[in-house]
Amino acid sequence: MERKIMDIKIKHLKLSLIALTASALLFGCSDGDDGVDGKDGVVGVNIDSTSSVQALFTEASVTDGTVTVNFNLENANGVAVLGLDKDDDLRFGIAQLAKVSETIDEVEYNRGYQWQAYINVLKEPGPLPDDTSDLNPSPQFQANVEAASNCDDCLVDNSDGSYSYTFQQNIANVTEPLTIVYGEDNTHRATLELKLPQVTANAHYDWQPSTGATTDIQTRNVVTIETCYTCHQPESLELHGGRRIALANCASCHTSTSGDPESGNSVDFTYMIHAIHKGQDRETSTAEGMVPAPYKIVGYGGSVHDYGKVMFPQKPAANCASCHVEGEGAPANADLFEADLSNTACVSCHTEKPSQTHSSTNCVSCHNSTDTYPGTGSAEKRHGDVLKAFVDAEAMGVAFSNIGLDASGKLKFDVQIQDSSGAAVASEFIETGTRVVVAWDTNKDFPAYSDASYSQRRFKLSDGTYDAATKTFTIIGTTFDMPTDADGKTFELWSAVEVCFNNGGYLVAEINMTECSDKTRSIAVKQPPYQFVWSGTGVDDTMQAAMRRSIIDAAKCQSCHNQENYHYNNGYNCQTCHTSDKPTKESVRGSGDYDKATSYAFKAHEADGHYLKYAGVQSGTVLKTDCLTCHSLQGSDVIGIQLGRAPDRVWNYPNLETKEQAGIWVSSDAGACLSCHQKYLSDSGANHIAANGGILDGMSADDVKTRAAEACATCHNPTQLMEIHGN
């Protein structure tokens, strides 16, 4: 009983103490208004635990040369990111956009606006690689950024996700290592780069210090990163160790005074980007002729980035508008490439001496729109001249008619090339050595190679007869037999016909369709295949053609490849010839080693340039595992990689052990996988395929069709395939 009373007293005492403490706390926290809530705490996420971060500058100012910027950090949901510290990998840059002129032979030329960084270093050449070809080591200035960790009190944390930073570099009177004259009326750009272990953020802020204006000022923004992503994958443009991901930051750091000390090459942004994309076609003129002039940069530890290996797909010439996209949503200075102000872009592609007939590199003194030298024209026109023939040919058409059988039961049809108005084009303007390709079973990946090889299904116009009065060619398919079950099948006629144009160049005023000769060039007339259902004697107009399943998005291919691809440059109907069962071939002609598949899927997946993450310059420009680079979508579903849709298809792959011409025969879904994975396929992977009904050791097409019972699509749906490939 005594123990129980003692417990009650203790409990009462505790409650009294709690009440007194609470009362004291209320008085201690009082703001003078009893009952009013205190200030809310900050809602935010700690910088060490956030999976996303975005930086946004809010203000910048210059006082006596001291630059101060304010910025916020948020995650992807707009929640404040707290706890940024000076010792995080946080760096800042500062540059101005100044008007530049150049004096040549006592004549001053306007070179427009160019970025100039205030923070620069003079760098001596470091270790050189073993192969020093095309390298000219020399000391070079390089634009730089400053690390927040080098200053104890420059970064201020306001504890609410907002921060301020005062630059260590005073910009009022910069004399070392370069003299930079501060102009308060010039646009200035502050840049931020934050590299965390889990995420990276870049930001920039453009303003005019004299007024504080952020709009209606010069920016020299000419391209967007989204345009780059047309061909590049985002991770391939995460540079300098993944720290730099924004074009605005790149442009204000890769300035005209910046160079690579180990190679001696300029790293000015305009020069560098054009030189990289000129790639393996970059040449310079010597007395002995044109010689390769690869653009090389030597990186950390003497590693060489040889951009002479780059195969830029913009053929036959770079279309400026593929990167310099104008129109709605375009950056402010998207049309700057038309201004004829700078020689930098010219010599970056054509090198400092484009031909022996040029005495200087003041290219725009002749190549301009306002005071052009006779017979030259501006850069826009000269590049446009190369492409104008393609534009004109694309507006033309191919018409097929009178489709039927001749007396011997062979397919017979008429073909007419038409100009943009629909008028027939005469044969003298047509390269009659170009062809029309015939195919059937369009919905089943085209004829089996054993039924009719592609060489049996293609016909030169010159193989037919020509009616000059109607300007029509008549072609008879003498080299193949119509399939016995042709009735009701979908056929197609695909044109690889080309028309002739004059070449552009010196003293050529206009590009026009021209009578074919050894001095003209021939351009494909781009026209989708003409598809129809066979009635038994001709076209069955009552039935709709059965379309092939959607696999690739040709518009995605075209966005990178421009006008020329490999051969037969009428779109991307490559599958009509490169069927999955087309025989293997020798990788080196005459070697006797039949170790290359020839199907379109294999060629596309293994193509030089589609595989740069692991070969070539190892840039990852187009990542093989990014299915969306090429494959088609239906809504959000990547239908272009759906399995189980063509069980009748078989593939012919090389036998990597024997390398005999017969190769091996592979079932439908397994063959799709092998187009990438054959040389990397492990025993366990092969066993997994076989256990799920796939055939990897077929002796013939019929052998595969008899035994195959693939169940791949049960587990491997498009979403799962995207995930397993890292998308």
From TrEMBL:
This is Decaheme cytochrome c. Keywords: Heme, Iron, Metal-binding, Signal. Coiled coil: none annotated. The lineage of its organism: Bacteria, Pseudomonadati, Pseudomonadota, Gammaproteobacteria, Alteromonadales. It comes from the Bacteria. Residues 303-433 form the Cytochrome c domain. One of its GO terms (molecular function) is electron transfer activity. Pfam families: Mtrc-MtrF_II-IV_dom (PF22113), OmcA-like_N (PF22112). Residues 1-24 form the signal peptide.
